[in-house]
Amino acid sequence: MDFKKYIIGKSKEIGIDVIGFADCNKLNSLKGFLIERRENNKETEFEERDIEKRIDPKKVFPSCKTIITIGVSYNVEFNDKVEYKFKGKISKSSWGEDYHRVIKEKMGKLINEIKKEKDFKYEYFVDTGPLIDRELAKKSGIGWYGKNCSIINNFYGSFIFIGYILTDLDIEPDIEVEEGCNDCNLCIKACPTGALEEPYRLNPKKCISYLTQTKNEIPYELREKMGIKIYGCDTCQLICPINKRAVKSDKNEFIPKITKGYIDIEELFTLSNRQFKEKYGHMAGSWRGRNILRRNSLIALGNMKEKKNIYFLKDLLNDENPMIRKYATWSILNIDINIGSSIIKEAIKVEKNEDVKKEMESLLKYFQNKNC
Known about the structure:
Layout: H1 3-14, E1 18-23, H2 31-39, H3 51-55, H4 57-60, E2 66-73, E3 87-90, H5 99-115, E4 122-125, H6 133-139, E5 144-145, E6 151-152, E7 160-167, H7 186-190, E8 196-198, E9 201-202, H8 208-211, H9 220-223, E10 229-231, H10 235-238, H11 241-245, E11 262-264, H12 265-268, H13 273-280, H14 290-304, H15 309-315, H16 322-335, H17 337-350, H18 354-370
Parallel strand pairs: 3-10
Antiparallel strand pairs: 1-2, 2-7, 3-11, 4-7, 5-6, 8-9
Domain 4Fe-4S ferredoxin-type: 171-201
Keywords: 4Fe-4S, Cytoplasm, Iron, Iron-sulfur, Metal-binding, Oxidoreductase, Queuosine biosynthesis, tRNA processing
Protein name: tRNA epoxyqueuosine(34) reductase QueG
């Protein structure tokens, strides 16, 4: 029996769109790049701190011989309209069921199918593993690095979730595919924050996808470029010509049946933690919690530039959460400096938290200088 062919066939039956195989040699070419990122403060809090674990599969799984990498497309079609009073966008990566669960389930099924023919040792990860999954996908022949640093498959495009299984199996590795972006720079030109500083070089701390997840303070100038995005960002992928012609996903798990691709901002501020988990707990974007999505919603309201939003935001200057009061201040002033100044000056008089008061004063100066 051709064991590799058997695994590929079973992966298709399970609903895995692409699969590739790689050896477990160190990813030595990335070490200098990772060190440079760290030295230039471009490393995020979500990354594995031990660089050796990021590039050496055997540091993660000592008996590793072959890495099986899979890709599942989430490029589903969905165009239903929503009638929310205030709505914020959710990235396609968080439209339907949490992809961590979906992809892990598919990999679990594949592991069981392999075990029917051969017993083996393994460890498997989706997104949260220490190794650089995109590099493993490239090495496994699943796709090439786009200039936006996403892995692009010529058939399914870049809207693919990646998972990998470290195994002690001996399987012939696949060949890497050639880069296919050629002279196209559309993704670099389209990036709202300039996070794609050059081809194949992303500054994650400027990326909107990162900004919507970090608990750190978001720089004022980057808030203005986030638009109405509440979680994630698809801009560089939507503009990609490969994605425009890519085969659409048939995975119903990723259809946004509940959210329809948007957050109801007004409702978000009425939900308790329990209610939030009940409604949004199924989606990947819920992992950061209710308050981070509320913070992002405040930025979205400010970027809508609708004066009527000020009345909604004004009430949030009394919210019990200091972060909400800070970002509500930014949002009000970003909508209208003249109306906002008088509102914030009054809020400063009654604000008891010195940190919040200091931020309100700082924002007043920032917007006054900006509008001079």
